[in-house]
Write a structure and sequence with these properties.
Layout lengths: L2 H7 L2 H22 L7 H25 L1 H7 L12 H25 L6 H16 L7 H23 L7 H32 L1 H6 L5 H4 L2 H26 L4 H24 L3 H19 L1 H4 L1
Helix pairs in contact: 2-3, 2-7, 3-5, 3-6, 5-6, 6-7, 7-8, 8-11, 8-13, 11-12, 12-13
Length: 301
């Protein structure tokens, strides 16, 4: 494969999004509030490398286990057996998982929190279980991916500010952690919504492998109703968050409404009207764009 093929295979756009989140949290958000942190730049690089490598390994094992469904859902984007051999893909999975583990373990050792390494182990096992079993189970697979999205964001404050918290700075550290936690919860909800949309989009292939997704078990109409329900909760949460911000930071409050709330309302309208695979794919891309816009809120905040 050529370099560009590897980049697509590794989902470079998703990786860039993950890295952007981490950089904004560490070097924009934490810096602005001048809070106590633990990670040096070199240690932060180790954290980023660990998360990105385990993410890549997750994408690879998912592609390995998903060849049958992908030949139906996205025949032009099947890499295993076409552009890369199964053996090569397995070797890459082991290599990236190993690098991710080693980087995570070494970082945990450096900051004297070796038990934190368990987080990376749990994430890797969850990704493997998702590819093998969980993605075929009703709702559980969707929740697993949403949880991992939540964890990707929260790992930065766990490693960087929880470890630097003491009795003197506890109040400020907790306040900043809570804001990142809110963003993590937003990420969880948005990812969960997007995963259900992707299940509707990929119904043909999922039916072939015997998956029990919401759209296959309860029907497309029910899946759409769940998406709309979750979206309304998400919109309400964003509006409440924007309301709380209005006095302290009016610009950020307006930004949340314009960049996240309005596109989500538009998403609800699209979901209610959509019927074709192409239309649901458009919604999936729109949700990814909303995720990016939400991340940029760190800069404004």
């Amino acid at each position: 494969m050529k370099l560009k093929d590897y980049l697509v295979f590794f989902r470079w756009k998703n990786l860039l999004l993950i890295l952007l989140i981490q950089i904004l949290i560490k070097y924009v958000f934490f810096l602005k509030f001048d809070i106590a942190t633990t990670l040096t730049t070199a240690e932060f690089v180790l954290l980023a490398v660990s998360i990105l490598c385990i993410s890549i390994a997750g994408y690879i094992i998912n592609d390995i286990e998903d060849v049958t469904a992908d030949k139906i859902n996205k025949p032009n984007k099947v890499f295993i057996g076409n552009k890369i051999t199964l053996k090569r893909a397995n070797d890459l999975y082991i290599a990236f998982n190993s690098v991710g583990f080693i980087a995570g373990m070494y970082l945990s050792f450096l900051i004297d929190k070796i038990s934190y390494f368990a987080i990376f182990l749990i994430a890797s096992l969850l990704l493997y279980s998702y590819a093998n079993r969980l993605k075929k189970k009703l709702i559980i697979g969707n929740l697993a991916i949403a949880f991992l999205s939540f964890l990707c964001i929260l790992l930065v404050p766990i490693y960087d500010i929880v470890t630097a918290t003491n009795s003197y700075n506890k109040e400020q550290q907790i306040a900043v952690f809570q804001v990142v936690l809110i963003f993590s919860i937003f990420s969880f909800l948005l990812t969960l919504i997007r995963e259900i949309i992707k299940d509707i989009e990929d119904m043909e292939g999922d039916r072939k492998i015997g998956a029990k997704t919401i759209s296959l078990v309860w029907g497309v109409r029910s899946a759409k109703q769940i998406v709309i329900f979750l979206s309304v909760i998400f919109i309400g949460s964003l509006l409440y968050f924007a309301y709380l911000l209005r006095l302290a930071h009016l610009t950020a409050s307006i930004y949340f409404i314009v960049s996240c709330v309005i596109p989500l309302i538009y998403t609800v309208v699209l979901v209610s009207k959509s019927k074709t695979k192409k239309e649901f794919h458009k919604i999936s891309n729109l949700l990814k764009m909303i995720m990016l816009l939400g991340i940029l809120a760190f800069i404004i905040y």
